[in-house]
Design goal:
It contains twelve helices and 13 strands. The chain is α/β, with parallel strands linked by helices. The strands form three sheets. Strands 5-6-7-3-8-9 form a six-stranded mixed beta sheet, sandwiched between helices. The termini are far apart.
């Protein structure tokens, strides 16, 4: 079990994690969600003693990480699949971890087989693809057969077969009574994997609830109906005191009613239904609804270009016929993207007089 109480981390004036309190319990897969910059990675680093909290406390089975003699036997973590010596083979990388934590050599072969890397176990890690490196990182997390596992973006670089495998692996570990804590930006995958959700935004706790409750509380659920007898159906629904929204194309939407009751009502009045379907938002839609005010980095669509003026109200732009002093030029203009990408195009577009 992982317990956070008032966990806070400041970097100067920036508050990355703001008084987080929640518990990650065994027996379920707990998803850890939040927009970019929400503080997820910082929180995970503090769990492993890689960053020291400014305030608050975090414990793993009642102890701080640095109090555990052989930590890989208690908690296995994948934070960065690239955090390995590229000159070592997959086998030797895991063997070094095993020897440092009192884990028998035989366990190395076991986890390599589990993640499907036995055939390349003697090859150097620097030659691995992103997906192979990810599998090796997962092997490192499993090495000590720990009761607590923590994964940050575990499906990154994996092919569809690998994604299916890691999903079933995490579910299987949770079914064994282990604590599984996983962070991911892939909402569709999280919806298939997690039982419980912890959601943060700008370092603050936004939700700590089951997957089903999270979607229900942060989205609209309704029943969609279509009938060739729409006018009669409307009359019947209105007579029953049911509020109906006409959504166009012959579709009706009803909030706050169960599909079964609506179907029985239609049957009672001998009405033909071509569609009777409960509709619920996806995890992604519910997440976007909850975190809309917590997003730190907003992208712009191609049809709505970003504000590239680069000038504040206190520093208005000079007239178009006057050159811009080098020191006063916005960053994108004075330091264009060397790759020739969007940043350089933006720079060219914004030159005075162009």
């Amino acid at each position: 079990m992982i317990e956070l109480e008032g966990l806070t981390k400041r970097y100067g004036e920036k508050v990355a994690v703001n008084h987080l309190t929640f518990t990650v319990r065994p027996g379920v897969v707990t998803g850890f969600l939040g927009p970019n910059g929400a503080g997820k990675s910082t929180t995970m680093r503090m769990l492993l003693g890689l960053d020291r909290p400014t305030a608050g406390d975090v414990r793993i089975d009642g102890r701080h990480y640095d109090q555990i003699r052989h930590p890989l036997k208690y908690i296995g973590a994948l934070l960065d699949a690239k955090a390995m010596h590229g000159g070592r083979s997959a086998f030797n990388h895991l063997l070094c971890l095993a020897q440092s934590n009192g884990i028998p050599r035989s366990r190395v072969s076991e986890v390599l087989d589990t993640v499907g890397l036995t055939a390349v176990s003697r090859k150097k890690a620097k030659g691995f693809s992103l997906g192979m490196g990810q599998r090796l990182g997962i092997a490192g997390a499993l090495l000590g057969d720990p009761q607590i596992l923590m994964f940050d973006e575990p499906v990154n670089g994996l092919d569809p077969e690998g994604i299916h495998w890691i999903r079933n692996l995490m579910k299987g570990l949770a079914s064994q009574g282990r604590t599984v804590f996983v962070s991911s930006h892939l909402m569709s995958e999280m919806a298939l994997t997690a039982d419980h959700l912890v959601v943060i935004g700008q370092g603050r706790l936004l939700a700590d609830t089951s997957m089903a409750d999270f979607i229900r509380q942060n989205s609209r659920s309704y029943v969609r109906l279509r009938s060739p007898q729409q006018e009669r159906l409307l009359d019947v629904l209105h007579a029953a005191g049911i509020t109906v929204v006409e959504a166009g194309n012959g579709t009706l939407e009803v909030d706050g009613s169960r599909a079964e009751l609506l179907g029985e009502l239609a049957a009672e009045h001998h009405l033909v239904l071509h569609e009777l379907s409960p509709q619920q938002a996806s995890l992604e839609e519910a997440f976007m609804q909850l975190t809309a005010e917590s997003v730190e980095y907003h992208a712009h669509s191609e049809t709505t270009p970003p504000d590239t003026s680069g000038w504040t109200a206190q520093q208005p732009p000079p007239p178009a016929d006057q050159p811009v002093p080098e020191a006063a030029r916005p960053l994108a203009e004075s330091r264009p993207d060397r790759s020739g990408g969007w940043g350089e195009q933006w720079s060219r577009q914004r030159k005075p007089g162009s």
